[in-house]
Amino acid sequence: MGTKEFGSNACLYSFPSLPQTIFLLYLSPSGGGNQTKNLSFSPFSLANPYTRNPIFKPRTTSLTLSRRRRIANLISGPLSWKMDRLDGPARLMIVSDLDHTMVDHHDPENTSLLRFNALWESLYRHDSLLVFSTGRSPTLYKQLRSEKPMLTPDITITSVGTEITYGDSMVPDEGWVNVLNQKWDRNVVLEETAKLPQLKFQSETEQRPHKVSFYVEKGHAQDVISSLSDRFEKRGLDVKIIYSGGIDLDILPQGAGKGQALAYLLKKFKEGGKPPINTLVCGDSGNDAELFSIPDVYGVMVSNAQEELLQWHAEHAKENTKIIHASNRCAAGIIEAIGHFGLGPNTSPRDSSDILVSKLDNFNPSHEVVKFYITYERWRRAEAEKSDLLIQSLKHICHPTGIAVHPSGVEHSLHECIDTFGPHYGDKQGKQFRVWLDRVFTSQIGSTSWLVKFDKWELTDDGRHCSLTTILLNSEPGNPGAFSLLHVHQTWLEGFAARCQNDWIF
Ligand code: GLC
Ligand code: MG
Q1: Which residues form a coiled coil (predicted)?
Q2: Would you tell me how many other CB atoms lie within 10 Å of the CB of residue 115?
Q3: Which of 248, 252, 258, 309 to probe ligand 1 with, by most ligand atoms within 8 A of CB?
């Protein structure tokens, strides 16, 4: 059994025979004389994301309730998303469209998406909510996630606001299904649309319980829409017809759509006593228009927005100063809007070159970990300056007795890992190589000790790989830039192990 003290009141136990398990032992800082009586055991398994629950209940309690709750959230949080994931109201709720808004299909490097990811995970994930709202069905949404370096949102709204799901496992909101079932008759929609030859059915995956979708040439769109409206009215069916991207025509229940889905969510948060402090909606095309008509939200139409959205804005929302047409494309436009409306910091860690220098007033472990991996990416892409100084500063933030457990199960000292890392300078130059962190959750577990847990992704010419990573680190009181990594523990996410294990350094 290995033991390591870290912080003034915590101790780390690891068992070589159980390589995937570590135990944390807390000593109460207010031990009242006899500290051993106040030992608190907080063991948890790191092996499998689906069994991240404590194996034993704490014997005695030396942690405050809120801290215990935060640790419990840290361990199980990313898996079982709940409306009350956050202690208080969300500081910022971003509700963003995906195609040509969050995701720039004209940028194979995904530069602005990666900038947004780093900003979100380092400074927003812990107290804010990320909502993706897309026209895609769950099937095409999952396909996009497998192609692009996208984060895991808290809430996913798919099929043009007709399906709302929570967390990574995408648990459906049954209440929303019931709302949409009112006054909807899919068969009438199919009967009437069959009479118009200008309508071409989209693929089977895009036909959903509350959404029927077609392609219509731009030139025919107006005529088709008014003819359809008349026909549905005659049949007594109140539906919503939305034209997007100059080609897609969606027919939904009148109460559906991206805007209505957002209104439903906001109402739910309000009823739970936690309406977001600020909400920013982001879009580029026709089906996003309704997002901008929800009261009190800020809105950004990205610079590359479609004519149909700009026209809607000119006709319906020109006077609304809470909506901007950004000067930047896609996710860069979202970052621009955060700054424009003063919704919080909008400098991504990817925006600075002297990345290891801390510029924050308070120690923020998520920020440090995100910066560490950007440095790692830049070193291997030969985008950082090749200097011994950088290797020295990396060593400096690794505790001399610190250990890294590689996802293969092999252990090395952290200093050894940095020595291995050095010669990898530029080994990914000219190749596909991107690194990003998802679902970064931090918890302070002692007066100077922190646990950071996240999914670490690498995109290489060999495919994409991911390890579930836990890092223990110590901060230095009064010195926000100073900290040391004590323990790094990684396990492969099932189905995403790297084929060449030596290529995965941290
Ligand atoms: C996405 C969907 C499609 C829909 C379009 C516009 O592309 O896959 O079905 O028509 O968004 O909402
Ligand atoms: Mg779009």
Answers
A1: none
A2: 20
A3: 248
Query: Mean pLDDT in the chain?
Result: 87
Give 80's pLDDT tier (boundaries 50, 70, 90).
Answer: low
Q: Which atom of ligand 1 is nearest to the CA of 202?
A: 9
- How many angstroms separate the alpha carbon of residue 332 from the centre of ligand 2? 15
- C-alpha span between 254 and 239 (Å, rounded): 4
Cβ–ligand 1 contact at 135 (below 6 Å)? yes
> Measured from the CB, is residue 160 less than 6 Å from ligand 1?
yes
Beta carbons within 8 Å of 463's beta carbon, 6+ residues apart: 499
Are 56 and 44 contacting, i.e. CB atoms less than 8 angstroms apart? no
Identify residue 192 by its one-letter amino acid code.
E
Give the tens place of pLDDT for each residue, 396-433. Answer: 999 999 999 999 999 999 999 999 999 999 999 999 99
For 181-305, where are the E strands, in sequence order? Answer: 200-201, 212-215, 239-244, 248-253, 278-283, 298-301
Q: Where are the alpha helices (DSSP H) in 241-346?
A: 258-271, 307-316, 330-340
What's the pTM?
0.87
Q: Is the Cβ atom of 287 under 6 angstroms away from ligand 1?
A: yes
Which ligand neighbours the alpha carbon of 249 most closely? 1
Q: How long a stretch of residues is the chain? A: 506
| C-beta of 151 in contact with ligand 1 (< 6 A) | no
Is any atom of ligand 1 closer than 6 Å to the C-beta of 228?
no
